[in-house]
Amino acid sequence: MEIYGAGSLEDVRICTELGVTGILTNPQGFEQYYQGKMTLSEITDALLAASDDGRNIPVYIQVHGRDAEEIAYRVEELHEKSDRVRGKIIADEKGFRAIKKLREKDILCVATCLFSVSQAAVAAMVGAQAICPFVTRATAMGMDMYKIIRAIKDCYAETPDAPRILAASLKSTYDVNEAYMAGTDAVALRYPLLKEMMSHVLTTKAEALFSQNWANVKGEDVSYMKERIKLSGLAE
Known about the structure:
With 236 residues, the protein is α/β, with parallel strands linked by helices. It has helices at 9-18, 27-34, 40-50, 68-79, 93-103, 117-126, 135-140, 145-156, 173-182, 191-197, 201-215, 226-235; strands at residues 2-6, 22-24, 59-62, 85-90, 109-114, 130-133, 164-167, 186-190.
């Protein structure tokens, strides 16, 4: 069960500190966080710096292009900055062709915006390192993406060197839980959702109860637990 981080540079720093497996990007984030003030090359440099903790985690930069050759060239150009840079490419014909070209040069890529078992089959054939099924976008269209992820997982079980499944487009901990239970290898998300994953209402109630217990242990400083002690009566 792996987690890939995304978001602003500060989100990326926090996610890296917490130990995510890698960093994923997309053009919505480029627009939202950099507001047209940085080139893709400059954004890549900033993300490499923000995620540099000595573990050499990969940074997947999403690119676009008119054809497979242009897409592959752009990934190669960014990859020259660091072996940590990998491609994140739309799962269509030109994208799959680009992924194959890059795999032949030992540059690993993710096939993104993936919605079907058939796309997942092609991704495996061309040597994608991973795929990104989009969960909530598919759900909004009436698709059962968890069922599709389970089917892909079953098919990949019989596929040598199968791509990893990185569920993306997740909006809540419910989505995360369902994606993991469906068999995804990892989830890709921004720090606010990762933060949400670290809590549960029952955990909060348990801490409230324990705070009252700690208050009655000689020598324990529980001043920081004042609010929790107030809640202890509600937590029983």
